[in-house]
Design a protein that fits this description.
Chains A, B: This is glutamate-5-semialdehyde dehydrogenase. Chains A, B: GO terms for molecular function: glutamate-5-semialdehyde dehydrogenase activity; NADP binding. Chains A, B: It catalyses: L-glutamate 5-semialdehyde + phosphate + NADP(+) = L-glutamyl 5-phosphate + NADPH + H(+). Two copies of one chain form a homodimer. By secondary structure, chain A is an alpha/beta fold. Chain A has two domains: 241 residues, Aldehyde Dehydrogenase, Chain A, domain 1 (3-Layer(aba) Sandwich); 144 residues, 3-Layer(aba) Sandwich (Aldehyde Dehydrogenase, Chain A, domain 2). Chain A is built from 14 helices and 16 strands. The longest helix of chain A is centred in the first third of the chain and has 17 residues. The model of chain A has no long low-confidence stretch (mean pLDDT 96). Chains A and B meet through strand 2, helix 10, helix 14, strand 13 and strand 16 of A and strand 2, helix 10, helix 14, strand 13 and strand 16 of B.
């Protein structure tokens, strides 16, 4: 099985990487960055073939945009690696440190996961981002990208491995899993004991498949049906800016807002303003009766509009009679990614926080801030929407495990 | 489906529990403790029926011992709940707190998981321990014990729920899943979205089944093929005490040692001593040629002895030529639970720590110290052997998730 072979080599490489110094890891990251820029022409030449094949397969413009590399995007990926090199090394950090009554010294220390599998869609930048973050966090990575990006991923991994070969780290800390064979996804998901963690990055159907089929531990990422609730005590200026930014700033990403909920007490003042602002920004509003009454461009919301992650310039919108109704709506239809409240009432904001159960809650801020960069992590491998291990943006710290080191002088249990 | 109904009620109860104060939770725990003691006679009467049925089914003495409750054991369970009440409330703890350059205040706060499923074998004490720890950590629990403990578990849960009914917390924070129907395990494991976490406690086959069938996130616990390595630089007095304690103190538990590795340079001095000590303690040694030569009571190790978790007074034992050979043996045969080294060399100890990949490493201490009580947690729901979320003993802190709360004044992303 190809995965067993790749994972075995990854394990060997991971053992060397686990004891590498920060300087060795940073040197490797910088070498990878330089190599990507130096070999931009080869990378773009391979990418053109992927893009052409996707275009002839009638892919959407958004899909093609994500797949396409440019010279600027290659530089951006290289700079991402340099940024990771500049971050502190999470490995070896002492998290807890106690001396017990019996003299035992107990330390909890951050250690690498070991071998991490990434399964993702047609975004070649994930190939480089994931390689950088896993390397710095001390784990070897098995990269299983989409077959439609196979030529791009192949050259990116080849360039990074060639750069690694000039350093003290083994090239096998970064390996590509063949995407021509669909079975490699299943093999990766069931490589229990060979792979320590699998992270899927992509749409809801990919995440669901990974969760259902995997026997390897998984961190789910990124499905976001995010809500903005405009409370009766909202500052309407802030509310307009936050709703528009949450929806329009980058509609294709998981922290973009998909549903707008407005308290009925401010509906008459707020709905005409936000409706015209959203429409002026090119947003299609799927509204309830109150929104429909505002503007002829509003379309009637269907039942399933409340559950859709549009990923586009569309938003579902309705009026609610209370904070509690807003909370119930979010609990029923949300994906527990990010919800925002706009309110000047600290009491209401506190109640919103206490009664929801999402990875991130924004009080008077755009949903778009749920992001590793915005949280100061410096790099992000994805946004976890599960409650286990890491919740919200995952940076270097979240990409580690821990171990307990207990030092004694011959202690035994009585 | 019975699980959907139970989980729905658990979710409702969990929402009330999530906003309960520490005082409310502690009062409930104390009421449960008092009720268990007050109704000891009923509990023992039910337990007698389970034990009689198991005895007539030819269960082992160890199995019957785990299943059997006594007045003292009921008091011990009640005192366990009182101990949990005395511990700090993990919920609401601020883990990280930063103000970003744009003025956003970002806090990471500890929150409950929500609904936790426990799947375990015929140990009625787990019913009470798990109920107490999940309640204090803010989650509702669905308890799926073994059918052979069904009468004991039924009365324990009935007593705890009756006590809860006298408090401000809903009784549905503690619910028993019927064990007569085997399908309830599968239903619990696939109750995705209804159950936030499943924790199996039991032997290797239970853990494996849970991992393979579950689509709900799992924390694996407790399979321990633990090793003691006696280094060439060992203090032999300490080594004898640590090996014997690690094996003999409580052989049925997961942190008991199952394999002894001895450096060849001290074999001639150490093997006769440890062999006679272990045999005097009633331990069957499955040894290599060097151990076989020490004593006629040593039996020859078979290939699979290195992989067995005996859970009894048996140990596999061999001589190794180096630290590296010991590490390779542990990496090949171990379960990454706990390994101990006995050595006076700090350099060797450090190398042992750096090259292994286990939940806990003991330096000159018994493997038996991998334990929530011994680590100062005050209570323990199990010992995680996975790298995700929690590794090693899991106390109240490990039984929580986190959320991000971001407070702004209208910030949007530019």
């Amino acid at each position: 099985m190809v995965i067993a072979d790749l994972a075995g080599r990854a394990r060997t490489a991971a053992r060397a990487l686990a004891v590498a110094t920060r300087a060795e890891k940073d040197a490797a990251l910088l070498a990878m960055a330089d190599a990507l820029e130096a070999r931009t022409a080869e990378i773009l030449a391979a990418n053109v073939l992927d893009v052409a094949a996707a275009a002839s397969a009638d892919s959407t413009g958004q899909y093609l945009d994500r797949l396409t590399l440019t010279s600027a995007r290659v530089t951006s990926m290289a700079n991402g690696l340099r940024q990771v090199a500049s971050l502190a090394d999470p490995i070896g950090e002492v998290i807890r440190d106690n001396t017990m009554a019996n003299g035992l010294k107990i330390r909890q220390v951050r250690v690498p996961f070991g071998v991490v599998g990434m399964i993702y869609e047609a975004r070649p930048n994930v190939t480089v981002d994931a390689a950088g973050i896993t390397l710095k966090s001390g784990s070897a990575v098995l990269l299983r990208g989409s077959s439609s990006a196979s030529k791009s991923n192949a050259i990116l991994v080849e360039v990074m491995r060639a750069a690694l070969a000039t350093t003290s780290l083994p090239a096998d800390v970064v390996q590509l899993v063949p995407s021509e064979d669909h079975a490699t996804v299943k093999d990766l998901l069931t490589a229990r004991g060979l792979v320590d963690l699998v992270i899927p990055r992509g749409g809801a159907s990919l995440i669901r498949r990974v969760v259902e089929e995997s026997t390897v531990p998984v961190i789910e990422t990124g499905v976001g049906n995010c809500h903005v609730y405009v409370d009766e005590f909202a500052d309407l200026e802030k509310a307009v800016a936050i709703v528009v930014n949450s929806k329009v700033h980058r509609p294709s990403v998981c922290n973009a807002a998909e549903t707008l909920l407005v308290h009925e007490k401010i509906a008459s003042a707020f709905l005409p303003r936000i409706t015209s602002e959203l429409i002026a920004s090119g947003v299609t509003i799927h509204g309830d009766a109150a929104f429909l009454a505002c503007d002829s461009h509003v379309v009637a919301a269907e039942a399933d509009d409340w559950d859709i992650e549009y990923g586009a310039l569309e938003i579902a919108a309705r009026v609610v009679s209370s904070l509690d109704e807003a909370v119930e709506h979010i609990r029923t239809h949300g994906t527990q990614h990010t919800e925002a409240i706009v309110t000047e009432s600290a009491v209401t904001a506190q109640r919103f926080v206490a009664t929801l159960d999402s990875a991130a809650i924004m009080i008077n801020a755009s949903t778009r801030f749920t992001d590793g960069e915005e949280f100061g992590f410096g790099a992000e491998i994805g946004i976890s929407t599960q409650k286990l291990h890491a919740r919200g943006p995952m940076g270097l710290t979240e990409m580690t495990s821990t171990t307990w080191i207990v030092s004694g002088e011959g202690q035994i249990r009585g």
